[in-house]
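Journal club side-thread
Mid-discussion, someone asked how the predicted structure for our own chain would compare to the paper's figures. Pasting it here so we can look after the session.
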Amino acid sequence: MTESQPPEELTPKRIQREAIDRDRANPNFAYGPPSIQMWPGQCLAVVLSVLRNGLADGRQSNGTWCGPVAQRHRDRYDPAEVALRRVRHTWITLTDGRVLDPTRWVFDDSAPYVYVGTDPERWYLPQ
C-alpha cells in the first residue's frame, strides 16, 4: 500500500454512497453535503459521516491545515486564514497514526481523492 492509497479502496464515491447518502436517509442525523462537488468547506460533515458509518478506524481530529489552498476553493474559507496558510480543518487520525483526509483534494485542486498517509510536510496541525 502506498502512502496515498486508502485502506480498502476508500474513495470519495464510496464515502458518498456508503456514508453520506446513508446519513441523509436517517432523520436522526444531521447529514453532510449531498454531492462530492459540495465537499469544499465541509470537512467536518464528511469526516463525521465516514466515522459514523464505520468506513475508517480512527478518530476525528480538529485543527489547522497549514498548506496551500487551491485558488478556485479559496472563497470557501476565511481570507485571513488562507493568506496565513492556517485554515481550520478536520480530518481522521487512524489508529496507526496516519492521516485520512477525504477532502484534501480541495486544497491541492486535484480530482476528488481520499488522502491516507503520513504528514512529512507538517501541514496538519492538531488543536
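Post-session note: The helical segments are 12-25, 43-52, 79-84, 105-108.
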